[in-house]
Amino acid sequence: MGFKKNNTKLESKLSIICNNAAKLSDKTAISFEDLFPETFMKIHTNCDSIEDFLAPMNIKSDEDFEAVPDDVLEKNVRENTNFSNWKDMQHSDWSDFLSEQLGY
Questions:
Q1: What's the mean pLDDT in 65-89?
Q2: pTM
Q3: Torsion 64-65-71-73 (CA) sign
Q4: In b/e form, how buried is each residue of 57-90, taking b as 16+ CB within 10 angstroms?
Q5: Which candidate, 55, 36, 33, places its Cα nearest to that of 93?
Q6: In the beta sheet, which residues pair with residue 45?
Q7: φ, ψ (nearest 5 deg) of residue 100
Q8: CA dihedral in degrees (37, 39, 40, 43; nearest 10)?
Q9: Mean pLDDT score of the chain, rounded to an integer?
Q10: 10-48 pLDDT, tens per residue?
Q11: What distance in Å separates the CA atoms of residue 37 and residue 35, rounded to the nearest whole number?
């Protein structure tokens, strides 16, 4: 009997995750503000927002971000976050973002 009860809870949770995944798949773009919320930035950086983090590199648009040399971005990450590189920062954030969006 315990298995049936737990199975029902699991099915319910999986249904929620599937519904949330379908909603997420409809998005064509995710902004930096959505991807790097203030809570993430305050926990992992010495900045209050992603805008504050990007400001020293004069990034105000996607084009600006693409034009920043990798070594400048990496230096900013090392100096202003608890990550050793941009890739690690992204991985951590994507994990948090997906967990929140999917509901698990």
A1: 96
A2: 0.74
A3: positive
A4: bebeeeeeeeeeeeeebeebbeebbebeeeeebe
A5: 36
A6: 81
A7: -70, -45
A8: 160
A9: 86
A10: 787 777 777 767 776 776 677 888 889 999 999 999 999
A11: 6
The encoded tokens of residue 35 equal 């991807």
Phi then psi for 62, rounded to 5 degrees?
-60, -40
Sequence-separated contacts (24+) of 53-59 with Cβ below 8 Å: 53/80, 53/81
Residue 88 pLDDT? 96
Concatenated DSSP letters of 3-57: HHHHHHHHHHHHHHHHHHHHHHHT-S---HHHHS-HHHHHHHBSSSSHHHHHGGG
Q: Sign of the C-alpha dihedral, residues 103, 40, 96, 72?
A: positive
Write down the residue that tokens 């929620």 correspond to: 16
* Residue the block writes with tokens 């202003």: 80
Tally Cβ neighbours within 10 Å of residue 100. 13
